Amino acid sequence: MIKDVFGLIYAGEENHNLRELVLARSVAALPIGGRYRAIDFPLSNIVNSGIRNVGIITQKNYQSLMDHVGSGKEWDLSRKTDGLFMLPPFDNADNTGITRGMSDAIKGNMSYIKRTSQPFCLLMGASNIYTTTYNHMLKKHVENKADITMLYNVEKREVDDGGASRDLRLYTDEDGWVTEMDYNFKYSNSNKISMDVFLIHKSLLEYLVDRSVAHGHYDFISDAITKNVRNLRILALEHKGYVGRLDSMNAYYQLNMDMLRDEVQKDLFYTGNPIYTKIKDEAPVKYGVNASVKNSLLANGCVIDGEVEDSMLFRGVHVGKGTRIKGCIIMQESDIDDNCTLEHVIADKNCHIRKDRHLAGDLSYPSIIRKGSVI
Amino acid sequence: MINKKKCIAMLLAGGQGARLGVLTKTRAKPAVPYGGKYKIIDFPLSNCTNSGIDTVGVLTQYQPLELNSYISTGAPWDLDSNTGGVFILPPYVKKGRSEWYSGTANAIHQNSFFIDKFNPDYLLVLSGDHIYKMDYNAMLKFHIQTEADATIAVIEVPMEDAPRYGIMNTDETLRVTEFDEKPEKPKSNLASMGIYIFNWQKAKKYLQEDSEDKNSSSDFGKDIIPKMLGNSEMIFAYRFKGYWKDVGTIQSLWDANMELLEHSELNLHDPAWKIFSRNPNQPPHYVGSDAEIKSSLVSEGCQIYGTVEHCVLFPEVTIAKGAYVKDSIIMQNTVVEANSEITRAIIDEDVVVGSGCRIGGEEKITVIGQGVKVKNNTTIEEGEAIEPDSVCILNQCVEDSEVHV
């Protein structure tokens, strides 16, 4: 059953709504949840389902992603047969290095897809954060003889005015068959939002991609899927747990803040399916005499002697005496010296905030400090 | 033939650590948890990796299961290598005879053939009982420079403690002139750390002779070193400065953990000399809105809703709302439910402390063994040691099998 499925993660997505955070990294490599990168979630979900062959399609800025995923050892994907395949751009007739969309990227990597011994492809993006296994999806797919099976969750999601939303909204009949889809549409009245994961037979995938690209359409979802809603049997299954979507700075901030909530932690981290990530061998967090921490998540390696509230601290963050941090996301190895106040700040990796500095953003527009800044 | 190695390590990890009581009922001393995420053996193993020693034989004997599964392929210490790696070496049945490791030297002797496979110039002998960070490569350099036959790492101890150690008396060049095992009137305060470097061919000869000596206890400190000194072999003392701790008793284990909460000489946060360990793959720890944590170490996967003061918490520990934990060490996956109070205790892995319990007191250290279930509103007096897998109801603890619900 699940041995007949291989995973294909499209990590080539660009999203400038994520501002400075994606200057030097792809969305898939975004640090989230104190010790993870976005790709840890799809990758762990795949592995926890029992799938042992995974390709990751990358585009630009994939150095930090490669560094993170490595040989796939942490996900148990460093295997003799199958395992992990990084699929960066390369130059040949079908793949010119720069792809014009997901279909184009899939077409460029058709040699990998053809070579896999598994007939079913589980195709997904890397910017949706949830924890599940895909076994039920395959079961329903086969039982119902679907062409494509996809996951969605029901959520009232505000579309911000920048037109940032790239939500694919679904309309289904009572049996779960998709009847209509809205893409990028502001005034949709469906609350069923696609989770950007599709189970599809690889011969159909190849056909859809070929046809679409031949017509000069390079996006997979808007060109190959939405246009074929009436020609394909598309089954949609609901995911009841939490789903975070990394499609804007606000969504990024909100996802990290949501992780402070008990029910979200249960949905993401304590389902019995662990989320794997690169191990850094950091010591436990050291709390000093003056530490006061409330409603926060702290990864190993931190040294805390100040006040931290409603915040997410990544590995190896130092918080000095007399410093107050509230509503912040502080990434790996950042040092905040004594007597600072930080409110609604996202500090990227390796920042150094010298003593007595006061920085504040707003809940609706967190202030971002670029990687490696010294303030 | 495997490539020749300059130096390989043999790590003695068969010690029972009997004085650790309930903590070593089901595990060997090197597998005892320490410092919020480590086991004692992580220290010598990480020292090897950080010193560039990539071949380590681990000699196990007492309760090896936890240790074997913990070390496994050696991947957490980067010791899963093609040309070296970590090798678990338990005693085994040989043609016509079978024997346990009767002493530290005997354990090495029984594995001579293993060491010979690597044909090393030097053999580093380590014990899996101590907490310290040490560059073995610096010691090896010293050994080569002094053209020694054997080098023993020593640390200065307070003169009044010297009678508890094996003491090296040296000349001004640090050549060992005399070895006093636990002397009543010590002449020096240089204590042996149980870390030796030998010229392997020389050591092999002495180990062979020792194995033929029926009266020998086959111990490096008691037999091999004195015999080598008797033959005027070149033995040097290598001075080590820094943190070094034998955590052989409940008190010293507790002290060593509590020292980490002060400005300890042992810096676990130093990126240049990381201590590697098998990671449990848990999310960051969560601190609730009503939680208070001061002067403590807290590891990944913990969920803290109560008050934690001056404690070391291992991964996946839950401290419920209203619970108060002070001066204690709480090991992996233990749950302390609401309104319980724990003072000066060492609580082993997988323990459940129900709500409204009182455990320990200000004076003596209380120890709760692995998997113990403490039912609601139970009091456990200070200084008690509860056997693994017991069930404590009201003020009585019984072995699990005796409970009929």
Key structural traits:
heterodimer; A: alpha/beta; five-stranded parallel sheet; B: seven-stranded mixed sheet; 19% helix
Radius of gyration of chain B: 23 Å
The total count of strands of chain A amounts to 28
* Alpha plus pi helix count of chain B: 8
Find the count of extended strands of chain B (DSSP E, 2+ residues).
35
Helix content of chain A: 10-25%
How helix-rich are the residues of chain B, as a percent range?
A: 10-25%
Quickly give the structural class of chain A. Answer: alpha/beta
How many strands, what sense, and barrel or not for the largest sheet of chain A? 9 strands, mixed
Structure description:
The complex is a heterodimer of chains A (375) and B (405). Chain A is of the alpha/beta class and 375 residues long. Chain A has nine helices and 28 strands. In chain A, the strands form six sheets. In chain A, strands 1, 4, 5, 6, 8, 9, 10, 11 and 12 form a nine-stranded mixed β-sheet that branches. Chain B is of the alpha/beta class and 405 residues long. In chain B, 19% of the residues lie in helices and 30% in strands. Chain B contains eight helices and 35 strands. In chain B, the strands form eight sheets. Chain B has an eight-stranded mixed β-sheet with strand order 16-19-22-25-28-31-34-35, with no helix packed on it. A seven-stranded mixed β-sheet of chain B has the order 5-4-1-8-13-10-14. In chain B, strand 6 and strand 7 (97-98) form a beta hairpin. Chain A binds chain B through residues 33-35, 73, 260, 265, 268-269, 274-277, 279, 281-289, 291-301, 303, 312-313, 316, and chain B through 35-37, 75-76, 260-261, 268-269, 271, 274-277, 279, 281-300, 312-313.
